[in-house]
Design a protein that fits this description.
The protein is α/β, with parallel strands linked by helices. The protein has helices at residues 10-23, 47-58, 69-72, 79-90, 102-105, 114-117, 134-144, 177-185, 196-205; strands spanning 2-3, 28-32, 64-66, 97-101, 122-126, 149-151, 156-159, 162-168.
Length: 209
């Protein structure tokens, strides 16, 4: 599960929990982007701060682990390079699932070598408020391959030569990191949007003012 996690919030954590349960995953690897290619660094907390907040958020859940792979690699944090490294690291012994929201998935055509991603891992596309599943159908058929067929038994799109694209409707928590940053900048409460430990760290470090 990648992202800037700027900051991590309950929407991220609940999505990871429900996806893991739905697909009976061994673990969820949270992969904070070091230098996201599609986002400005204005308002982006340092990697160390984002790492620490994520560490506080996932503590106590043995299913959740973290990776600083993108921080250790120089240059922009391209997902195709990350997944290529992970595939090599696991040596084909484990199946990889890339978890992301439907809004982010629809932007894949703007990512570096995005078609290669479908040959490296399964996708788990999580529903987002206000975006219909039909937009996923359209994107796959026009931007990836017209051989995708939806299988209701697995709630996923199957392709003869590529990995499955699963679709999951989860508890819709309409929370965004940007809205949390705006609240903090206005000296308003973010209680119940982020874990208490994360909120305490943000206040302690004076982030997002």
């Amino acid at each position: 599960m990648g992202g800037t996690f700027n900051p991590v919030h309950f929407g991220h954590l609940r999505a990871a929990e429900e996806v893991a349960e739905s697909l009976q995953l061994k673990q969820v690897i949270f992969m904070p982007a070091a230098k996201p290619p599609h986002k400005t660094e204005v308002g982006l907390a340092s990697f160390d701060h984002r790492w620490r907040m994520l560490e506080l958020a996932v503590s106590g859940n043995s299913l959740f682990v973290m990776s600083d792979l993108e921080h250790r690699r120089p240059g922009k944090s391209y997902s195709v390079e990350t997944l290529t490294q992970l595939s090599s690291q696991y040596g084909g012994e484990e199946e990889l699932y890339f978890v992301l929201g439907l809004d982010a998935f629809l932007e894949l055509p703007t990512w570096k070598s995005y078609r290669e991603l479908f040959k490296l891992c399964h996708f788990v596309v999580v529903a987002r408020p206000g975006i219909a599943r039909e937009s996923l159908d359209e994107m796959l058929k026009t931007q990836v391959g017209d051989n995708y067929l939806f299988d209701p038994n697995i709630q996923g799109y199957v392709h003869p030569n590529q990995y499955v694209v699963y679709y999951r409707e989860i508890t819709l928590l309409d929370i965004s990191s940007s809205s949390i940053r705006n609240l903090l900048a206005s000296s308003r409460s973010v209680r119940y949007l982020v874990p208490d430990k994360v909120e305490h760290y943000i206040r302690q470090q004076g982030l997002y003012r």
